[in-house]
Amino acid sequence: MQKEERMMSEYFLGIDVGSVSTDLVIMDEKEKILSKLYLRTRGDPIYVLTESMKKFQQEFGGISIAGVGTTGSGRQLAGVIVGADIVKNEITAHAAASRKIMPEVRTILEIGGQDSKIIFLKDGVVTDFAMNTVCAAGTGSFLDRQAERLGIPIERFGEYALRSKNPTRIAGRCAVFAESDMIHKQQMGYGEEDIIAGLCEALVRNYLSNLAKCKEIDGPIMFQGGVAANVGIVAAFERMLGESVIIPQYYDVMGAYGAALLARQNYQRTGKQTSFHGFSHAYHTFRTRSIECKGCENHCEVIEVRENDTVMARWGDRCGKWSGQNAASATAVKEGTAS
Amino acid sequence: MKSHHGAEPSKLKVIGIPEGLMIFEQKQLWKKFFESLGCHAVCSGHTTKRIMNSGIELCCNETCLPVKAFTGHAASLCGKADCIFIPRYSSVCSHEKSCPKFCGLPDEVRISLNNKTKFLEIDIDFNRDSKKTQKSLDLLAGELGRSPKTVRDAFDSIVKPGLAAEVSPNRSCSYEPGAPVLAVLGHPYMIFDRLLSMNLIGKLQDAGYRVMTPYDVRRSVRRKNVAPFLSDSFFETGLDMLGGAQALVNLPELAGMVYLSSFACGIDSLVLEIIEHKIRNGRRIPFLKITIDEHSGEAGFDTRIEAFLDMLPNTESIRREKIV
Questions:
Q1: Is the CB of residue A135 less than 8 Å away from at least one CB of chain B?
Q2: CATH class name, domain A3-92+255-283
Q3: Would the CB atoms of B48 and A298 count as touching at under 8 Å?
Q4: DSSP codes, A112-127
């Protein structure tokens, strides 16, 4: 696309700050992805976010952003830092993205850093869904940790699994048990490939028995989220479901894409001018700190976000004593759409 | 034993009532009971993070969150009362059993608190042996320095009718058609406790829904509705939930069901599956189960609720504001 053309159109920015990765997408008016970024969060969402904004600034500094959406477990923080128009949970964002890519999709398998969910659709309408309960066993962050422990880059985890001829049985019910099972099997002398393949199977078995119990899984089946990059998990799903599993082209940034789509929807519905601070805003200094409120016996941990030396937002309190002040600040972003 | 009359003060003046588990819903009954016997009753108040933390520290690791909260409530009363009252709820009516954790509660708390204070208990067992109840009331009478008859009478007139009441004392049984309904299922001491439930009901109401619980259904209706699933004795809270869910699932306004369960709850593990796979499936009511344990972060909890509400069909328009 030529630079002039870019200057003419309006674009939407979608940001997904997850526990494992931070993804950004710039989408045009026709809902096509112009550019995407996928970076490891590595426990420092502010750094990763501002660095990626700087990258976009260099490449797309001049384009006009008409709306910004944030999602993921760090959506609130990201929303405050960039000035988001819509802040949405990652499940809704993912569903929006898959429906856009494949309107006829019937089942969405999604494994992210800390969430796993299954969504059932019929004619583009969600008919049922299930999410993992608060336990994060069998999600991306667990795989990540195991890869690190075995000294294998997570990107190559899947290849190892595919090389296995005889997957080892690993207990997948609980991440803690799975880990001790794996260590035990390693000590017994099982091959790395077999252990990794066994782990992939255990995760899929656990996923299906937790989320898909007694439910009909109809095709087309789409598999997304960071874990979809793992060919070992994909193979295990296909084997157990007896059906092929579709990995969308942008499987790793579906959350960010969904957030951009929701930002566009929001823009079309409300026609409101974006609260986006601009890419160059990333050069400001952002700091967070947590304060223990001693106002009552609940001792809430309040998170405070500061830009340079100004407090931008606070949250984490039960009573609203701190978060209530956000409304007064012009930069505060409330969860959900501004209505 | 000598008979005492009205104004005579008891030996134990201040009775501490921990507001958790079964007492969460029935503290008024017990308060009235002790006050009628000339005692002063102090309740532990709402669950706070401090109560929760001390309960987690004191309890054995394996038990459920509400038991830990209860122990924290009991601990918070040490020093504020002459003794702590913990009823042993074995069974509140015939053919029904309470959760086994209630049956052992006085012992559990006594051990967790290392006998730091004096404890009072009443054994409530109307299924097998109401003589046990009478005996424990007589013992209590001795401790309080009251006549056995006074205590028995107070129990029969104040407490007994409330234990298996048609209408839960703190909940209404009114039903007017109107706004979309979300059924919140779970033990009363979970779903109505603001801290343990992370204000689930408040959050759903803020999102514009009318919240109904099994305790908005009359007890006799709850029991009648259990029939297709179980014919005989079962755990009481399980019956409330099964029967309540079966009654609520027929509401035309029902938009979804949320089951709030605590990790390691044996009753929930069974009842939840029956509700998810049998009861709600006829109408394919959207169903969300949330299991909570010692999490203090509400972010993951709120994500699930928000995603659930987003997926409910055609209710977007009624939602006043979104959950933060």
A1: yes
A2: alpha beta
A3: yes
A4: -SS-EEEEEEETTEEE
